[in-house]
Design goal:
Layout lengths: L2 E5 L6 H16 L5 E6 L4 E4 L15 E3 L6 E4 L3 E9 L6 H17 L6 E2 L6 E5 L2 E13 L2 E9 L19 E2 L2 H4 L7 H14 L1
Parallel strand pairs: 1-2, 3-4, 9-11
Antiparallel strand pairs: 2-6, 3-5, 6-10, 7-8, 8-9, 9-10
Helix pairs in contact: 2-4
Length: about 200
């Protein structure tokens, strides 16, 4: 697999990132570029997918950026690892399998840190259970154009969870949101590398 791996150190503007993904998408459709996996952080931003509803905005003073990805409203900010991609599904043409690859990648990576997580067929994303409370640890939002998948997923590491109180995250009101530092306070500095490594291994299967 000929995939470009890109790791941004400084926070990337949300629309700059999306414009870069869409440019790569166009090039890949025309077979003029490599596939891409890109890890980064955004500064504080609330984004809305194509299926969100107005009543999911609790704090009416926040600015919501409309996007063309699937899903509802979510928050991005410092302390959250975002993994964007532009990946070619034209040979396999199986979106469900691709989402399973993303889910397995996150679950396998977090298991390296002794954190058990799981997917939910009714609520997309990756979840963690503490006692009887189920909380989201990673959000997934993708779009597929001409069998090229893009956008990505985000893992909460040590981001400010207060921002999620301003929205109904991903439209799910009966479950909470957490981050890795809340679950186990340990060193997550190598998580990005492990995630990319697992993602590529799963894509090759």
């Amino acid at each position: 697999m000929d995939i470009e791996i890109k790791k941004s150190i400084k926070p990337v503007n949300y629309f700059d990132a999306i414009n870069a993904l869409e440019a790569r998408l166009k090039e890949l459709i025309e077979n003029n570029a490599k596939e891409l996996i890109w890890t980064l952080e955004h500064n504080d931003v609330f984004t809305a997918g194509t299926s969100y509803k107005e009543n999911e905005i609790i704090d009416k003073s926040i600015k919501i950026l409309d996007t063309n990805r699937g899903g509802k409203i979510t928050y991005h900010g410092p302390g959250q690892l975002i993994c964007y991609f532009v990946l070619d599904l034209r040979k396999k043409k199986d979106i469900r399998k691709f989402i399973t690859i993303i889910e397995n990648t996150i679950i396998q990576t977090l298991k390296l840190y002794k954190i058990e997580t799981f997917p939910d067929k009714d609520n997309i994303g990756i979840w963690h259970k503490t006692n009887s409370e189920v909380q989201k640890i990673a959000a997934i939002g993708i779009r597929v154009s001409k069998w090229i998948a893009y956008h990505g997923f985000a893992i909460n590491i040590n981001n400010d969870l207060e921002n999620y109180k301003k929205i109904i995250p991903c439209g799910i009101s009966d479950k909470g949101v957490t981050n890795l530092k809340n679950i186990i306070d340990q060193d997550y500095s190598n998580l990005e590398n492990k995630l990319i490594e697992n993602f590529i291994l799963n894509l090759k299967k």
